[in-house]
Amino acid sequence: MRSDLYAALSGAQSAWRQVEVVSNNLANASTTGFREQRISFEEVARHARVATVRPDMSDGELKIDGDPAHLALRGDAFFSLEDGSYTRDGAFVIAGDGSLVTKEGTPVLGESGAVRLEPGESFTVSSEGEVIGARSGSVGRLQLIRVENPTPMGNNRWSGNGEPATGEVSVVQGALEGSNADPVRGMVELLEASRYFEMQQKAMTTSDEMRSRLNRIGGS
């Protein structure tokens, strides 16, 4: 492949990947606990390509709603779920058997297994994640996990190698964490990436046209 055409194609592919990432960020600007993805580029043989796509682990806006089953995280950590995945979406509910579960019914894990209260009892959750029932007392501490290189799985779930979270991590009961995606910045980035993609498309078209003209001249 000609170097000019390869450079334009590489640039177009990188720009389109950025369009995909930023578009997903914008689509989830109101998704509870969503982690914005940030893209970085590198230069290889004078051609730009995507180097990494990583989640931004900065906290989203705290939204107080007073629901005792709703939990928000502050700091670099995820809630751990029984299916092996992780989430920042703390819009939990109490199931009929007293289990703390996601909206889809997946149990939330404590350090000693799934968190379960007596059906119908009121409870509190401390900033350290200890769940305390009004009748049953402490039923354990939430398993808060720091995930190395978390990979999105869809449905606001993440996978990756996890270890117990340390440092400045806390739980806020009666609140949800908003998305940390910045819609204004995202719109600017989307516009820039779209324009760059169009520019690379035009470069490829121009390269083909010039090659066709040279071929015609050489064949005449």
Key attributes of the depicted protein:
single chain, 220 residues, alpha+beta, 2 domains, four-stranded antiparallel sheet, three-stranded antiparallel sheet, 34% strand, elongated
Short précis:
This protein is of the alpha+beta class. The chain has helices at 3-27, 183-219, and strands at 37-44, 47-55, 62-64, 71-74, 78-80, 86-87, 93-94, 100-101, 109-110, 113-114, 123-125, 130-133, 137-141, 144-154, 157-164, 170-173, 175-177.
Description:
The chain has 220 residues and is an alpha+beta fold. Helix content is 28%, strand content 34%. The chain has two helices and 17 strands. The strands form seven sheets. A four-stranded antiparallel beta sheet has the order 6-5-14-15, with no helix packed on it. The chain has a three-stranded antiparallel beta sheet with strand order 11-12-13, with no helix packed on it. Helix 1 (3-27) runs antiparallel to helix 2 (183-219). The longest helix is centred in the C-terminal third of the chain and has 37 residues, at 183-219. The radius of gyration is 24 Å and the shape is elongated. The mean pLDDT is 89.
